[in-house]
Amino acid sequence: MWVAFILGGITVSKLLDKFIFNTKFHFNALMFSIGIILLLLSFYISSKTGKLLKRFGKEGNVPRFQTNKLIREGIYSCMRHPMHLGLMFIPFSIAFLMNSISYILIIAPITAILIFVLIKTIEEPEAIKKFGDEYIKYMKEVPMFNLSLSCLKKLFQ
Fold first, then answer.
1. For residues 94 and 103, is the Cβ–Cβ distance under 8 A?
2. What class is the 2-155 domain?
3. Local confidence band at 1 (pLDDT 50, 70, 90 cut-offs)
4. What contacts 113, CB < 8 A, 6 or more positions away?
């Protein structure tokens, strides 16, 4: 699914850049650097939160990439979906790497909104099925995303 988002976004942005914005690709070191920083940030957040899931999210013999325990430690104590926050940086990193105005202004924001919608319509209901009332309580206490300084500190500790 991610590959389709990325390849589709690249294709659409190239068409928009050419026919609507009348621009062509040209390398820009600043834009490329911003893209690299965002990509590294995305990988860091996804890796760190994935390690927390692996460490605290399993009891007993559970298949790889699966959890059976609700995590409320670390960053998960102040944000329900920190890994998805990291993944939301990927479209923006690609946009800057490509130096594409349409990807930055149109495609990346739409992709980020789609990620949010997928979390709300698929991930959250699955978590409620898996963890029941415990997750419903967690939803009431902890926001989906939290960009407060105290929460972000937990992410980068």
1. yes
2. mainly alpha
3. low
4. none
